[in-house]
Backbone:
């Protein structure tokens, strides 16, 4: 089994996430992480999934995703040279006597403190999953009160753009959602 990084460009519509997640569930996949946010194309969001599975099984589900009408494009970045990151916010117990040690760890990991309270600090750390995991292990002895992680986001390195949508060049083009004018679903204008 290999961890695959799948990205999908989808229309911003209610229920899209549920329909896409159902495609993975129907095939017995557990989604390890999921991150969704706006893309460079107005009206489209970019979803990044990490799933464990054989390449054949993952390819089958990726093809099944195209049956969801709001899906514009799907790519498996696993075989591409890619940049991937995760963000975590960590609320750490920080008694006054421990703050120096916590600050040293924050500096080593190039993280930053984004909130300070009487007995806690909130630290923002970004990097690979391994870096975030290593940071958590270092601050665990102080006491982690609360933790939230985004899951992996990823992009192919260099000139490779498997998620580029033909005809889209910044703000002068926009994606026309279904039902607007005479354009069909997925039509770029």
Residues:
């Amino acid at each position: 089994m290999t961890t695959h990084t799948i990205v999908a460009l989808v229309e911003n519509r209610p229920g899209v996430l549920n329909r896409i997640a159902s495609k993975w569930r129907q095939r017995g996949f557990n989604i390890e992480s999921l991150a969704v946010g706006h893309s460079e194309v107005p009206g489209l969001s970019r979803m990044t999934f990490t799933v464990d599975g054989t390449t054949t099984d993952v390819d089958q589900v990726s093809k099944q995703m195209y049956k969801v009408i709001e899906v514009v494009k799907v790519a498996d970045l696993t075989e591409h040279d890619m940049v991937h990151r995760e963000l975590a916010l960590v609320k750490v117990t920080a008694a006054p006597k421990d703050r120096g040690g916590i600050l040293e760890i924050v500096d080593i990991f190039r993280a930053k403190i984004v909130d300070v309270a009487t007995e806690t600090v909130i630290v923002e750390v970004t990097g690979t999953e391994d870096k975030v995991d290593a940071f958590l292990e270092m601050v665990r002895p102080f006491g982690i009160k609360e933790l939230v992680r985004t899951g992996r986001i990823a992009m192919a390195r260099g000139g490779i753009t498997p998620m580029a949508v033909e005809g889209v060049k910044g703000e002068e083009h926009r994606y026309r959602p279904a039902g607007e004018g005479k354009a069909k679903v997925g039509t770029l204008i």
In short: Residues 4 and 66 are 18 Å apart (CA to CA).
